[in-house]
Amino acid sequence: MGICFKGHCPLSEFLNTYIFHWLPSRAIWIAGHTLSWDARCAGIYIGFGIGVLYHLMTDRKAKNLPPLPILITNTLLFLPLFIDVFTITYGSREPSNDIRYLTGLLFGMAFSVYLFPPFIMFSHDRAHDRSAIHSFSIFALLLIFIAGAFFLKAWDAAISYVILESLSFAGFISLFGILIFNLLKTFINSVQGVNDYRKKQGRY
Amino acid sequence: MSKGIRINKQIATTLTLLGLIVTVGFMLACGPKLTTKKESFPNIYDEKPLSILVLPPINMTTAADAKEYYATTIAEPVSLAGYYIYPIEVTTDILKAEGLYDTELLVNLPPQKFKQHFGADAVMYIKILKWDTAYFVLGGSVTVSVDFSLKSTTTGKVLWAYDGTMKIDTTGSDYGVGGWAGMAIKLMDTAVKTAVTDYVPVAKKANIITVSSMPFGKYHQLFDKDRDEKVILKDKPEEKGK
Description:
The structure holds two protein chains of two kinds. By secondary structure, chain A is mainly α. Chain A is 70% helix and 8% strand.
């Protein structure tokens, strides 16, 4: 960002501190380029991006969460990130960008499975009464895509950089888009609820 | 085919709010903890050293030649940070002439001795923590990790301490050739890249990362103007110096 005063660039400092978290030692380098985020955040946003795209491909109007066994398995995928952070913080082992990236991918993917159905529920009046990830085989395919994103990082070519950078931005935009949309919808629904209640009160 | 778990508006709202909390949580927790240079290294602003004596690095790795190679990379970034650096080759020769071949022998020596013998304002101890090649057939990397500690030769206090790591991926390319042939090409490319990667440029990058946290010296235009500049919080210099 080009807005700088006396050697300080507040906007870029703010963006790097709170959004990108980029550090040379924690960055992912592919074909001489670096992803805009640090390894863990890149993993989270890429995982989320893949999750959202996968939901759109399988059933873009499915509003239900996956069946309970899949949901429990999906919830377990949050854990590696916390285990990684915990073991690094308490000095049990050396940090590794590959593990940061992998645990971020799993976290982001698991996050999308929880956040996408509410978005469909809020955004579609005639959403399908089923889950986009209704079987373990479909869930396994999603995991294969995640594994693909992990191994794509090792392919030192500009195309893999472009794919991963695009996915990370797609994930970032969709995550905040979904959150903002859902919150707005919740707010509008609450206001409507209050108005309906007042109308009823006035009627009686 | 299972229909999955139905959600109503309340559950959707709860999931959204939880999602918001988790997102804000990882955005705050994932980022580096920042602090100002003045908060991290107050002693260096109080003492304002002009000249630094850089001792030969302490090699903590199994690479026997790391010390000599690394010693060639350190003068430039510290000089560019605004300090006068005593010529490392000359000081190393003087120390060798006195029978002090290894910096390990000097670590416990009071830093004030360097003021007496060299007239330096501060003395810099460097540890080479990693000088490694990792090779796993289809992938590889070269890592250099260094740890710096700058002590005052007047008070003996730690003025600045920091560490930095640089890792370069040396995984080869299959140059668009698929199948087994592509894998064989990638394997060879990785082996060659990992074998021929020069450690010195990697060490220079590690130095840039590390020395960027150092407050500027008197020979730099930003001398004493960088107190509020942000650096990533690491261990307190006093704790690292122990």
